[in-house]
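BACKBONE STRUCTURE TOKENS:
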Amino acid sequence: MSEEKILSRAERNRLQLRSDILQAAFIEFSERGYHQTAIADIAQRLGIGHGTFYRHFENKRDILEHVINDTAVQLTNLLAAENAPTAVATLDEYTEQCRRIAERFSEFAHANPNMLRLVLLEATSIDAEMTQRVFMLIDTGGHLTAAYLNNGVARGYLRSDLDTLSTGHAIVGMIMAGMFRLLSDPTNPNVLKPYAESVVRLIVEGMAN
């Protein structure tokens, strides 16, 4: 019994250190830039040796993979419950859903500008595989957005002739443009408000049946 408790404690410590390394790496990436950050910078911030770092991660690229995965999970979590693709049945409900999603995405963007900069601007400059990883994330967003549009077509409040997949990718493009607007003026708390409302109006008024 005592051995199980010791192992459990050791595992908790391992997971905590792994989390600490991720956080330290993200701070260094944010302050220095991905390419300018060395493993030594991350290790020094935590007061650990290189060997300790390599027991948890292969390299700093491995950490970036975790940042991208975490970003995808957090964004997906914003689209649950009342914001799920099939959660609404009328145009009015869809309009309110779009506004809720826009608000939550804006809050996420304002809270995580460094994460967005890392994923959208720096990740694609590392290598072809990482660039493809980001493109796949964007493509997944297009298919997910199409699911909302398919629901609207099926329920009759969006146009029946809508090319849902192409339109879904177009909407993701507008969302990304909003993220770039934020990155150009990250300290402005209102930079996304008029933009988000304009996007919602384009989506709803341009596709309503």
The CA atoms of residues 43 and 49 lie 6 Å apart. The domain at 60-207 is CATH 1.10.357 (Tetracycline Repressor; domain 2). The two ends are 65 Å apart (CA to CA).
